[in-house]
Structures are given as C-alpha cells and as structure tokens.
UniProtKB/TrEMBL annotation:
Signal peptide: none annotated. Residues 246-255, 260-278 have a biased composition (Polar residues). Residues 279-292 have a biased composition (Basic and acidic residues). It comes from the Eukaryota. This is Uncharacterized protein. Residues 37-56, 236-255, 260-292 are annotated as: Disordered.
C-alpha cells in the first residue's frame, strides 16, 4: 500500500516540520476518545453541556489531538492504488482537512466574530445560502437512490471488502454493498432490479480477471456498465472521487480481461457433454458386466445339462 505523510502546518505547530522525526500512526489516535452517541469516535470534539433545557449535541470536529502533536511527529496516511485515502488513517486525514476552515491562519472561512461582519455581507450571504439550498433540493430530487455508506467513502468500503475476500472488488459488487441497508435489503425496488441484473451478468461469467488484491476493478463493458449505461465524458461512476478514464491510459492501464458470456456458455456445454459421455460409459460398463454374468450363468447351466445327460445314460 502506498503511503503519504501528513504533517502539521508550520503556522499552527509553532515551528518547522522535522523530516527525520518520529513516525506516528493514525490508528493510535482515531479511537482514543470515547464513542459519541452516533457511533463515531472523534478527536476531542466540542460538546454542548447537558442541562434540563439545552439538548446535548456532538459539536464541531476540532481534531485538537492532531493539531497538538509535536512538530517532529508525522502520521502515515494509507492510500490505495488510485491515491484515495483508506483505512482509519484516511478517515483521520479527511476529518483533519475539514478543520482547515476553522483556522484563521490557514483557510479562514469562519469570521473571528459574527458581530464584526457588515450587515450587507450578512444579507448577501443569506441570499446565496437560500439560493444554494433551493438548488441542492432540486438536485437531490433528481437523485432517486441514495448510497447508505454515509461518511465512509467508496474507496474505504472497497478496501474493507477486499481485505475480507482477499481480492480486488468489482464496482458491481461495491454498488450492491453501498446501496443496501445493514440487513442487506436494497434501498429501493429500482436498486434491487439493478443489483439482480448485475449479479446475473456476473454469474454468467462476465467478470474482470486481474491479479490484484486491493482497489476497485472497472472496465467500460463490465457488469456495472452493462446495467447502468455508458459513462459521461471524463467520469467514472461507482469508484469514488479521483479516478478518471484518462487515468487508465498508457502505463497506468491495468491488466483487465473480461470473460465473455459466450465462452462461459461453451464451457457449460462442454461440461454437459462430458457428463453425458461419462453416463454412456457407465451404462456400457454395466452392460458388459451384465453380459459377463449371463455368459457365466449359461456355462453353468450347460454343465448341469451335460451332467444330467451323462447320469441318465
């Protein structure tokens, strides 16, 4: 697995990053805090104090434990073959990036004090927010089926599936995973029909053959593409953010081979003929054995007849 080093910024760490410093794995940091009510473990999140009138909330994700690390410590971020963050370290990396907007020294998206913001800017901001909300509502209305993976990316889900099965995952199998509930039920009848079609294509032998044990397998004519249709220009569905069609050209082209259904049908036919041939051979062997038994029985009967004839004479 490829790896990348995630270090603190010089402005917030108070010093330069030492390249030959210690190495700290993110797995040692992600699960150190208690799990919150929604089942996610965070690094020192702010929580609203519980009271009889104020509802206790989870608060912002601050990742204070990451920001407070010494400048000579680094976290190893796991990446898959596509350069997508995976594993617990990848989840920590994405959450840490989300805290940049809270830092006035790096990417100040939050004002120091809301009261200092001019009234005109507040009005303009509110109008933009309302417009964006309406646009997102309309866009969400066109999206009939929603993935159930939540904050877990497709790359992370595929990585977990690959570790369980020991081989890379086709995007058809990944689609069936993320678009089903915890009990394995599809999110809608439309999704169920698509999953059934993909499984039928895979069962007929239209699978991707590649010697890889991680990542997401895809091709322009795989089971996913046959059901979902052609890709849009420059897009690859079902593999998460990052991969593009141009990323598979030249030296980056994986050794994918698609087993056509015709060859599978031929194999089934040959197997059926072989079974029929074996049955005929078994029947022939039984006939030969029965014929031998009949011959032995006739010889024995003939001897008895000769013995009786000699006795009468």
């Amino acid at each position: 697995m490829h790896s990348a080093l995630l270090s603190k910024s010089n402005k917030l760490a108070g010093g330069s990053v030492v390249s030959n410093g210690g190495l700290l794995y993110a797995e040692d940091l992600v699960q150190e805090t208690p799990v919150s009510s929604n089942g996610r473990a965070e690094d020192l999140v702010q929580e609203t104090p519980a009271s009889s009138t104020v509802r206790k909330t989870r608060g912002r994700t601050l990742m204070q434990r990451i920001w407070s690390l010494p400048a000579n410590l680094k976290i190893e971020c796991g990446l898959n073959v596509r350069g997508q963050p995976i594993g617990k370290s990848g989840q920590t990396f994405k959450r840490w990036l989300g805290t940049f907007c809270l830092s006035h020294a790096l990417c100040p998206l939050v004002p120091v004090a809301w009261a200092r913001v001019p009234h005109k800017n507040k009005v303009d901001c509110w109008i933009e927010i309302e417009t964006l909300i309406d646009t997102n509502k309309r866009s969400r209305g066109f999206q009939k089926d929603i993935a159930r993976s939540g904050p877990i990316s497709f790359a992370q889900t595929a990585d977990s599936m690959a570790k369980e099965s020991g081989q890379a995952v086709e995007r058809a199998a990944l689609f069936a995973k993320v678009y089903c509930t915890k009990d394995g039920s599809p999110v809608s009848t439309t999704v169920k029909d698509k999953i059934d079609k993909m499984k039928e294509i895979l069962n007929n032998g239209c699978t991707l053959q590649v010697e890889r044990h991680e990542g997401i397998l895809w091709a322009k004519d795989d089971a996913f593409a046959q059901v979902m249709g052609a890709e849009r220009s420059g897009r690859v569905r079902g593999v998460g953010f990052g991969p593009t069609p141009s990323g598979r050209s030249g030296s980056n082209l994986p050794c994918y081979t698609l087993t056509p259904p015709s060859s599978t049908k031929t194999t089934h036919r040959m197997t059926s003929l072989e079974n029929s041939h074996q049955s005929l051979r078994d029947e022939l062997a039984q006939s030969k054995q029965k014929h031998k038994e009949e011959i032995v029985e006739l010889h024995a009967k003939h001897k008895e007849q000769i013995a009786e004839a000699l006795a009468e004479a």
